[in-house]
Amino acid sequence: MKAMIFAAGLGTRLKPLTDTMPKALVPLAGQTLLEWQIRKLCAAGIHDIVINVHHFPDQIIDFVRSHDWGCRITISDERDALLETGGGLYKAMRESEPITEPWLVCNVDILSNLNYQDVMAAYQTQPSMMVVVSDRATQRYLCFDNACRLGGWTNVQTGQLKGQDGIHWAFSGMSIVTEDALPLLHDYATAHGPKFSLIDFYLSICASHTIRAYVPEDYRMMDVGKIDQLSQAESFAASL
What we know:
Blueprint: E1 2-6, E2 27-28, E3 31-32, H1 33-43, E4 48-53, H2 57-65, E5 72-77, H3 84-95, E6 103-107, E7 110-112, H4 116-125, E8 129-134, E9 140-144, E10 150-155, E11 160-163, E12 167-177, H5 181-192, H6 198-205, E13 211-214, E14 221-223, H7 230-239
Parallel strand pairs: 1-4, 1-6, 4-5, 8-13
Antiparallel strand pairs: 2-3, 6-12, 7-14, 8-12, 9-10, 9-12, 10-11
């Protein structure tokens, strides 16, 4: 299995830190956010990783090159245009053709106690696209049927619903995309343009393609997204 880390974001909620560095290089408990993800992916047995870059891209490239990670890391350069998660994945997959294995994709700013090997093992039991979700309080949820198949999305505060309602689980910033996703991404990009969300892509295909939920047990996570949460995030990272 191959992996992609979404590290191109502007990190506006982490200003003023991100006025001089990319969000991916914000340090927590002795490691950068990017290093937390790379180390966990390598420990899970993934040895081929793509990282997309846009905001202070050279800092990330220099950081990656200055370490011996024990795995192959390539850069998908988005400095000319930030493509969001779906567009970023589409660009990276095009640049990696032919696609011969599934991709585990994750956000650089999500810290968790998730065992990535468990996610990959769950995929092997039923190889289809898969999203990691959890039962936690939020405004926006993915909606699943009784067979844990994705069918829609809802904002419970506004009442907005896309697709079918169902069991509500919160997206946890990680998913597995199968080898046959590239032509589907191509069709979506052709219809909607090169910049798009991975969740919007999933919602566009879930009626015709199985996208399963993976709900980890005893799951703890934190989205390192706001400057006033860094102290809490430091403590959380130290506990992992």
